[in-house]
């Protein structure tokens, strides 16, 4: 499955390679979800002969609280991190365009991130791979295993070729996997993934609506260290009675 994920992303990257533009981004996002979701379904139902429930993707009606939890766990401390960086003068941010345009771009990026990164990546790495590992291994080994696979995936598709990017992918995957283990589904991870990736793109070249001086500090402090640390603390406090890192996870039969 990890190999299939890499091949899908490499194929789409080759197909849509060129200078960035939003229509191409949108096409890539739709194609990614359209290819990956059926791929995971086939792997789960045909190859594994196991029920959908094991993937940890219940209906949004059942998972919306976890979705909002994941988003809040990143957005609230990240906002504090932004304020800290701006307050101490470590970062300067100026708006290139109107507030209305910023809001439109942000809303569009939420949808594109959900389709291109959050849903397919969480479904493959935390929904399918981590769960399959966790039915055979202690939860902590499954957590680390999927993080290694996710980081390797980032390297192979060209998204994580430097040491700092590799470290980011690994820590990010640990965070997402911990929410999967704690909540029992991938909605919290999807929420956190959408929040992080949307803000990162909005304040980067993809969004192209802000000029940022001190982007490296902003990325490390406001988008990395503070929200990831707070998310871990929230997870440990909220799910301390549920987390058992030494036991395998039973696979549902229905």
Automatic annotation (TrEMBL):
The keyword Transit peptide does not apply. The keyword Signal does not apply. Coiled coil: none annotated. Residues 107-198 form the CAAX prenyl protease 2/Lysostaphin resistance protein A-like domain. GO terms for molecular function: endopeptidase activity. It comes from the Bacteria. Keywords: Membrane, Transmembrane, Transmembrane helix. The chain crosses the membrane at residues 26-47, 67-90, 140-160, 166-183, 216-235. Pfam families: Rce1-like. GO terms for biological process: CAAX-box protein maturation. PANTHER family: MEMBRANE-ASSOCIATED PROTEASE-RELATED, PROTEASE. This is CAAX prenyl protease 2/Lysostaphin resistance protein A-like domain-containing protein. It comes from Micromonospora violae. The lineage of its organism: Bacteria, Bacillati, Actinomycetota, Actinomycetes, Micromonosporales.
């Amino acid at each position: 499955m990890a190999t299939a994920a890499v091949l899908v992303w490499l194929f789409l990257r080759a197909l849509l390679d060129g200078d960035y533009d939003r229509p191409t981004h949108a096409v890539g996002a739709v194609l990614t979800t359209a290819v990956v979701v059926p791929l995971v379904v086939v792997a789960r139902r045909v190859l594994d002969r196991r029920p959908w429930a094991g993937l940890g993707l219940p209906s949004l009606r059942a998972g919306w609280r976890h979705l909002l939890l994941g988003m809040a766990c990143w957005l609230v401390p990240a906002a504090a991190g932004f304020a800290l960086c701006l307050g101490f003068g470590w970062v300067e941010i100026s708006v290139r365009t109107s507030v209305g345009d910023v809001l439109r771009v942000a809303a569009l990026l939420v949808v594109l991130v959900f389709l291109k990164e959050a849903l397919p990546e969480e479904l493959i790495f935390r929904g399918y791979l981590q769960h399959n590992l966790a039915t055979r291994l202690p939860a902590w080994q499954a957590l680390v295993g999927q993080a290694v696979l996710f980081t390797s995936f980032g390297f192979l598709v060209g998204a994580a070729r430097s040491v700092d990017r590799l470290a980011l992918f690994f820590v990010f995957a640990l965070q997402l996997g911990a929410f999967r283990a704690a909540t029992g589904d991938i909605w919290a991870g999807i929420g956190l993934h959408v929040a992080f990736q949307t803000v990162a793109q909005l304040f980067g070249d993809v969004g192209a609506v802000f000029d940022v001086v001190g982007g490296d500090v902003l990325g490390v402090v406001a988008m990395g260290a503070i929200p990831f640390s707070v998310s871990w603390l929230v997870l440990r406090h909220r799910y301390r009675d549920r987390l058992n890192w030494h036991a395998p996870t039973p696979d549902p039969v229905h």
